[in-house]
Amino acid sequence: MIGDRPEAGGPAYARVAAAIRRLVLDGRLPLDTRLPGERELAAALGVSRTTVTAAYDELRDGGYAVSRQGSGTRSALPPSRGGTRGDARGGPAWTPWAADGSDLLDLAHAAPEAPAEVRRAYDAALEQLPRHLPGSGYHLFGLPELRAAVADRLTARGLPTLPAQVLVTAGAQHAFTLVLQLATGVGDRVLVEQPTYPNALDAIGRHGATAVPVPLAADGWDLGAVAAAVRQTAPRLAYLMPDFHNPTGLLATDAERRELGAVLTRSRTLTVVDETLVELALDGPVPPPLATHLPDDLTVTVGSASKTLWGGLRVGWARASTALIRRLAAVRASVDMGSAVVEQLAVTELLGGLDAALPARRAELRTRRDALLDALARRLPTWRTRVPAGGLVLWCDLGAPVSTRLVGAAERHGIRLAAGPRFGVDGAFERWLRLPYTHPADVIEPAVEALEQAFRAVTADGGATADPVDAVA
Ligand SMILES: Cc1ncc(COP(=O)(O)O)c(C=O)c1O
Question: Start and end of every HTH gntR-type domain (predicted)?
């Protein structure tokens, strides 16, 4: 994997191979691109032709290049990344929520605390509970009033939805795994943005499916790349986050949504649209849901109360055609029989008052985002990041492939981080770090001070010296 980049001083062929591999994994070298001829690359890099031959051999052995008679050597990705994260074949799982009992400041997760409304909603839910106690308490599809509240919210956002088109789940991740269980089998391909949400990659691996990464451009969706990936790999499923994409924070424009919709509709690709962060717009309106450009029978929109309100509620939903919702509910019944009634009552209450509560939630997040941007500009001015228009995180270009080492150093300075490679297929993004702005501003300043010290520690020993990628690019 990319974190295993041979240090300077390793064999030249291995460094050339590692550099090209990173270009492929970072998405800077699109799949199926013809690599330069051996003689040509040797001359460009000032190395011997044998070095390039050995580098290409290594890339082929690892699945990062294929050679075909007449079409030269072309970039590729290994068919499966079994073992780099948890999967059905028994690799070690990344368990981000593991409680390790440490007192590190958690910058690895992007989950804000509950607003005051959550406590009040639980009080209201308990008052309503007696109405439900005479019933069985089992609601496989969800409490009718919550299904209606979710449908109303989606309808108000421009996606007409009936309560029967909603399945209440234990969060968006649960909803996504139900779709995987329903629709994918071992070896199926699932198109994902690169980078993407790590738990989605984990779930795809555990179902024995293979993630097909499509690189995001610096400022949005590369529609040509999506179309090419759909054409070339015929994915069984696509998993997309057009609304404050995690980790880049990107928001798809209306035009991008239209084109994504057109590509996926033409290919009849079953699409999961993850809208977990959609309500956290900080700088302006969000275009209508991607699902408005997709057929109902091939689209599952998943949403959640986790980030808008509180992760501890464990309430999310799937929205699709009624037929698809029924099939997802049947899958769900083999796992669990429904969500807890009190939490569903609380979320119903919270959704009813969401328009009143959101301005304060957004204002606080805006303050935190700006505090983090300000602290980074002062203390780590070489890092580069786009200002996200919403969501919960900054995606920072560190300028050098030191993310994994920075995570280790940061722990020694009291900070828990998630390294960039968590967000990429097969360990891409060693130059990148995701930083949440979910902590109050007075926590952010000392946290960035600690990050600055950790970054100095890892770059002091040459970690920020020229990346061989740049020599090849
Ligand atoms: C994009 C995205 N999808 C899904 C989830 C999981 O949400 P839930 O808590 O609803 O399962 C998260 C949480 O970080 C997320 O960022």
Answer: 10-78
